[in-house]
Amino acid sequence: MSAPLVRFEGVTRRFGAEAAVDDVSLEIAEGEFFALLGPSGCGKTTLMRLLAGFEAPDAGRILLAGEDLAGVPPHRRPVHMMFQAYALFPHLSVARNVAFGLKAQGRARAEIDARVEEMLALVKLEGLGGRKPDQLSGGQKQRVALARALAPAPKLLLLDEPMAALDRKLREETQLELRTLQRQLGLTFLIVTHDQDEAMVTADRLAVMRTGRIVQVGPPAEVYERPIDRFVAGFLGEVNLFEGPDGCTGVRPERMALSRAEPKAAGRLPGKVAEAGYLGDRTVYVIEAAGRTLRAAQPSGGDAFRVGDAVWVSWPATAVMRLAE
Amino acid sequence: MRRGPSPFLVAMVAAGLVFLYAPIALLILYSFNASQLVTVWGGTSLRWYAALAHDEQMLDAVSVSLRVGLISASLATGLGLLAAVALVRGGRFRGRTAFSGMVYAPLVMPEVILGLALLLLFVSLKLPRGFWTVTAGHATVTLCYATVVIQARLAGFDRSLEEAAQDLGLSPARAFLAVTLPNIAPAVAAAWMLAFTLSLDDLVIASFTSGPGATTLPMRLYSQVRLGVNPEINAVSTLLIGVVAAGVVAAFLIQQGKTKT
Fold it and tell me: Which one of B153, B168, B174, B180 makes the best mutation probe of the A interface by having the most chain A beta carbons within 10 Å?
C-alpha cells in the first residue's frame, strides 16, 4: 500500500450536544477505492463534508497528502465532490457544466474544450454537450455529474450516494462501470453509501460506521466473512445468530447446507422447511429448527425442497463467525 | 366525457371580471372620446392624446414618475436581494427575528404614517425635499415587497448547487454570482417589476416626501381631478395602463420561456 493520501486523526464534529463524527481515525491510500458504509445518520456524509471543507472539525486533524486542511475553504481544496442529487447547474448546458471547474481554474479556452470533449467521451455522452440538464435522463445526469467532478483532475473524488437516484438495474451496471473507470484513471475515490452491495462491489476497502464511529475497516471480503460484531454482520448481508455460553456466533445463509439425511458436519440441526423463495440464481429457505428460525440459501440446480419437508441444516466449522455484541 | 363548467361558475367569473375591469375599460374607452365633456360620448378621436403631447406639465410628471420608479426599483431590488440573502442564508444570527420583522413591517404599516414618518425624518435632517427624497421614500417602502419575492425563491433554491460551485473552485461570492443569481433571476426581475409598479402608482408617500419641481404623475393627476375631470387624464391613464400591462405580459413571457427550456 502506498503512502496515505487522506488521514483523519481523531476527528470529531458535533452538532449541538450530539457528535455526528466521534473521534474518527482513518487512512485512505493513494489510488484506492474506499467506501464509507453505514445506515442513515451514522455520520458518513458528515465525514465526507469535513473532507470537502463544508464542515470544520471540532477536534482532530484532516491531512491530505500530508498537509493539514484546517482553514482551507472548499474552493481551495484539490478535492471534488459528486453530489447526491447531482447538483447540476440547470441554467448551463452539459458542456458548460463539465467546463465549470476548469473555468474556475482559469484554463485556456482551447484546453477547456478539449478536456470537456474528453470527459464526455469518458462517460459515453458524446454529442450531448449542448443539452440542458433537464433534457437528460437520470442515468445521463449522473454521468454529467461524474464528468464535471472529474474534469479538473482532482486528487480525490468524493461520491455522495452516487446511485441513490438510479433504478436497480442501472445501479448494478453503473457500479461496475465506476469501478472500471477508477481503475483506468488511477484516481482515489471515496464513496459514501448505505447500500452494502454498492460498497462491496466498488470498493477496495470499506469502513462500516455507526453513530459517528468507525466499527470496522477492511477489504469487503474480510469484513463480510469476519465481521467483528453483530451490527457489522447484520449490516453486510444476512446472518443466522446463535447465542452460546461463550458468546454470540453467526453463520451466513449461503454457508448453510440442506440435506434429507443426517450430515456429518460440525454444526447440524434437524428442522422443517417453513418457506421457500426462488430468486433465479438461488433459492432462499426459511427453516424452523429446534425452536429457532434459520435462513439457508442454496444455489439453483441442486436438490429442491418443498414447504413442509423435513430437512437437516448443517454448516462447517469454518463458517462460524465469532461476533462481539 | 368532460362536462363544461357550470353556469354558476361562469356567471361568477364574469361578474368578478366585470367588477375588476369595467372601470378600466370605461376609462380607456372615454380616452378616445371626442367630446369635451367626460361623460358624454362625442365620437372617436385621438385629440386628447394630441393635447397630451403638448402638455408640458403632464409630460414632466410622467418623466419624474418614470425616473423615480427606475431608480427606486433598482435600489429596492438590490437591497432586497441582500436582505433576502441575510434572512435565508444567514442562519440564526443575533437579531434575525427583529430584522425580519422590521423588513416586513412596512407591508402592514399604513402608508400615511410611513409618509409622515419619512417627512419628519427629512425635515429633521434638513434635507431639501424633491426628486431624491421621493426616490428614497419609494425605495424604502418597496424594499420589503422586493425582499418577500426574492426570499421566497431563494428559500426554494437548492443550496447544494452553490456548494457544488464552491467545490469546483469558486469562492462563495463568485459561486453566488455564477450559480445562484442566474437561477433566481426571474424572482429578481419580478421583484423589480413589482417595486417599479408600486412606485409608479404611489400617491401618498410621494405627496409627503416631494417638494417643488418633483411632481409625480399620480400627484399631477390627483390635483387635476380636484379641479375637474379632464378627458386628457383618461388619455394619460390609458398610456399608463398600457405600460404596466406590457410589463406584466413581458414578465409572464420571461417566466414561460424559463420553464420551457
Answer: B168
Question: Cβ of B169 and A152 within 8 Å?
Answer: yes
Query: In this structure, what C-alpha cell is assigned to residue A207?
Result: 469502513
Contact A60, A50 (CB under 8 A): no
Q: Of the candidates A99, A200, A108, which has an alpha carbon nearest to the alpha carbon of residue A152? A: A99
Instruction: Flag whether residue B63 sits within 8 Å of chain A, measured between CB atoms.
Output: no
Note whether B168 contacts A152, CB cutoff 8 Å. Answer: yes
CATH class of B44-260: mainly alpha
Strand segments (E) across A74-194? 79-82, 156-160, 188-193
CB contact under 8 A, B169 and A89: no
Inform me whether the pLDDT recorded for B41 exceeds 90: no
| Domain range list for chain B | 44-260
- Chain B nearest-CA residue for A148: B168
Q: Answer whether CATH 3.40.30.10 is correct for domain A4-230.
A: no
**For chain A, domain boundaries:** 4-230, 241-323
Query: pTM of the full predicted structure?
Result: 0.80
The reply to whether A80 touches chain B by the CB within 8 Å rule is yes
Cβ contacts of A81 on chain B, cutoff 8 Å: 163-164, 167
- A87 to chain B, any CB pair closer than 8 A? The answer is yes
Between chain A and chain B, the number of residue pairs with CB atoms below 8 A apart is: 58
Unique residue bearing C-alpha cell 486533524 = A61
DSSP lists the bridge partners of residue A193 as A37
Q: What is the pLDDT of residues B72-107, one digit of tens each?
A: 999 999 999 999 998 888 777 788 888 888 888 888
Q: Give the long-range contacts of residues B236-244, CB within 8 A, separation 24 or more.
A: B236/B52, B236/B58, B236/B62, B237/B27, B237/B31, B238/B27, B238/B28, B238/B31, B239/B49, B239/B52, B240/B200, B241/B24, B241/B27, B241/B28, B243/B200, B244/B197, B244/B200
Nearest C-alpha in A relative to B181: A91
Q: What is the mean pLDDT of each run of 10 residues along chain A (325 residues)?
A: 83 91 94 94 92 93 92 92 92 94 92 94 90 92 94 92 86 90 92 92 94 94 94 92 87 92 88 92 91 91 87 92 86
Q: Write the single-letter amino acid at A174.
A: T
Check B164 against A87: CB less than 8 A apart.
yes
> Beta-carbon neighbour count of residue A310 at 10 Å?
10
Strand order in the sheet with A282-289: A257-259, A310-315, A267-278, A282-289, A292-299
Measure A287 CA to nearest chain B CA, in Å.
48
Tell me the fold of A241-323. Answer: OB fold (Dihydrolipoamide Acetyltransferase, E2P) (2.40.50)
Please tell me which of the candidates B160, B171, B175 has its beta carbon nearest to residue A83.
B160
Residues A178 and A202: beta-carbon distance below 8 Å: yes
The Cα A294–Cα A239 span in angstroms is 9
Q: Pick from A75, A89, A91: which is nearest to B166 by CB?
A: A75
